[in-house]
Amino acid sequence: MSAPETPLSRARSEFSRQARAMAAAPAFRDDRAIEPFVRLLGPPAAGPVLDLACGPGIVAAALGRAGHAVIGIDAALAMLERARAQCDPLQGARAGFAAAAAERLPFASGAFAGAVTRLALHHLPEPSLALVELRRLLARAAPLVVGDIVCSPEPAEAELHNALETLRDPSHQRFLSEVELVELLETAGFAVESCEGFAQQRSFADWAAIVADARKLEPLEVVMRTLAQTGVRAGIDLRSANGSVEFSLAFRFVRAFPC
């Protein structure tokens, strides 16, 4: 009898399957979704930087090129394989990778001179636990940079946006609004210094290609096209143009410090 599925096992399964497509996806290689981590983290410090839920290592590689020593953590072994391949050929990229759950990390308190996490919190059933763990691991005055997609502050729009994302990727838990994200960080023991972002334009085709499951994506496209044609925006400016379903995702990058 197989073990019951958990959010962690579901995420491992989905991201093992998505690893190749995610590593190559233009949306994940968009410099606007990478540069803020390097800039907001600041110059390299004496200690290593933690990349929590590092995925295919795109941000870790950028931090390595900037001179940081990076330790990347992810729950999916396939992602870690991609991350190692991403970083190994890069001259000056100093990175190591290990498998672990975000809520229980095998490092001493205060071991890191900084931390980043990209597009991870919305996959965690209790993101506050991961943030408390990051708070424990950061040295005094060490920066944390969180980058994630945020949803509309309007509850009905946020609910629909999250439902559409879950239909695409069952490992999704919930996007937070910008206000919720800041409050979550503050509750976990961080002082938020800044919050910035950009709007990333996406098509259904490139968004769907990452999960590559035609059986569920074809009906989802019909649903999203119908919503767009009837004027439902779902908080993401959902629209249909020339037969293509398009929308806009709001990225936010929050710089915070343990307090």
Summarize the structure.
This protein has 259 residues and is of the alpha/beta class. The protein is 41% helix and 23% strand. The protein has helices at residues 7-24, 26-29, 35-41, 58-65, 77-87, 127-137, 155-168, 178-187, 204-209, 214-229, and strands at 49-52, 69-74, 94-99, 114-118, 144-150, 190-203, 239-241, 244-258.
What does the model show?
By secondary structure, this protein is an alpha/beta fold. It has a single domain, classed as Rossmann fold. The chain is built from 10 helices and 8 strands. It has helices spanning 7-24, 26-29, 35-41, 58-65, 77-87, 127-137, 155-168, 178-187, 204-209, 214-229; strands spanning 49-52, 69-74, 94-99, 114-118, 144-150, 190-203, 239-241, 244-258. Strands 1, 2, 3, 4, 5, 6, 7 and 8 form an 8-stranded mixed beta sheet that branches. Strand 2 (69-74), helix 5 and strand 3 (94-99) form a beta-alpha-beta unit. Helix 1 (7-24) runs parallel beside helix 5 (77-87). It is globular and about 55 Å long. The model has no long low-confidence stretch (mean pLDDT 93).
Outline the secondary-structure elements:
Blueprint: H1 7-24, H2 26-29, H3 35-41, E1 49-52, H4 58-65, E2 69-74, H5 77-87, E3 94-99, E4 114-118, H6 127-137, E5 144-150, H7 155-168, H8 178-187, E6 190-203, H9 204-209, H10 214-229, E7 239-241, E8 244-258
Parallel strand pairs: 1-2, 1-4, 2-3, 4-5
Antiparallel strand pairs: 5-8, 6-8, 7-8
Helix pairs in contact: 1-5
CATH classification class: Alpha Beta
Low-confidence stretches: none
Mean pLDDT: 93
In total, the number of domains comes to 1
Instruction: Give me the Rg, rounded.
Output: 18 Å
